[in-house]
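wait is this the right file?? whatever heres the structure
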């Protein structure tokens, strides 16, 4: 899944965040109740105002839930510990990175 580009703006409205992330507003509002790290500010009129870091968090949550198959509780736990990989998941990612690096090295050696 390609990572959407976040426009260079200071603030985003809920509709803009939903469009960037490809989710509905009710999903975003629900995630706000489930993930303490997702807490947009409110404007004087009471509208949600998101910063770039909030949009990045929304994209991260979406990846954990929709791509990696985490439950809400699992994604919350993952984010609360800083997103650090542990145990078998870390080993799997490291093995994949090693394989990709070996493939790159092989390609570089062929070209020289």
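ok assuming it is, sequence goes like this
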């Amino acid at each position: 899944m390609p990572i959407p580009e976040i426009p260079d703006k200071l603030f985003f409205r809920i509709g803009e965040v939903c469009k960037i992330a490809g989710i509905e507003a009710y999903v975003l509002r629900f995630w706000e109740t489930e993930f303490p790290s997702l807490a947009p500010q409110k404007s004087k009129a009471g509208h949600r105002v998101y910063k770039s870091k909030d949009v990045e968090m929304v994209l991260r949550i979406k990846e954990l839930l929709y791509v990696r198959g985490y439950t809400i509780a699992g994604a919350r736990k993952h984010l609360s510990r800083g997103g650090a990989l542990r145990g078998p998941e870390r080993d799997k990612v490291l093995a994949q990175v090693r394989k990709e690096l070996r493939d790159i090295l092989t390609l570089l050696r062929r070209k020289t």
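The CA atoms of residues 6 and 56 lie 8 Å apart. so i think its the right one actually
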